[in-house]
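> run fold Enoyl-CoA hydratase domain-containing protein 3, mitochondrial
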Amino acid sequence: MADVVSFRKEEPNGLLLREVNGPVLRLTLNNPLANVLSIALMEALLAEFEAVATSKDIKVIVIAAAGKLFSAGHDLKEMTQHRADDDRGRAFFERTIRLAADLMVKITRLPQAVIAEIDGLATAAGCQLVASCDLAICTDSSTFCTPGVNIGLFCSTPMVALSRAAHRKQAMEMLLTGETIDASTAKDFGLVNRIVPQQYLRQVVDKYAAVIASKSPQALKIGKEAFYRQAELPLADAYDYAVGVMVENMLARDAEEGIGAFLGKRMPEWKED
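> ok
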């Protein structure tokens, strides 16, 4: 794989910090104290995703957070202020919740792998963000919950991502009780991939990102799209779809190169589209 020059860019006064290291884009939620997903922060995330979607240089995206909380979800204060609107806030609620849904869908549609790096509490739409990412790695002190039911607001949109990441009955347990689960339970539920000590979190995430970034970008793009599409289909239809995808993948340039390299006992040389 060709060497990529690493550089770093930060926006210390913004809601979202941006850092690029070679093929890895790190986006850090910086909306203290709770890193709530305000309209402004969600729009900033979507703008980054739109900008990077066609990038040939970025192979992996990491979503992290500054401070002691990963994200407390929607900005309830921001939403409550609009109850005084003529429509009792309906238009603003629709805008906020639709924007969050669009953000989560965009994560699954990106050609890049997206890794959530969690150190602290991820609650409600913050937990939805974790569940929407392709991989999730957390510290042993991280916690997760969907507590809407505790305040009369069932976490219906977080439910969509949660029910696709965690096992169904465990997802319902979180949604119905609103109780907070620890990192070990989150891993048992299927919400996170790995639990690591806090001091090694960045190191482990960087290693995952580097390993993924070293793979064929063509194969990763094809595979990620296929993973989410087949998951929405009945079994027989999923196989029919996957057969077509794999045949086309076999005919792709990188598969020809990768198989040839494997048989020739050499390292493959991936080419950009």
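Strands lie at 16-21, 24-29, 60-65, 69-71, 113-118, 121-123, 135-139, 143-145, 181-182, 194-196.
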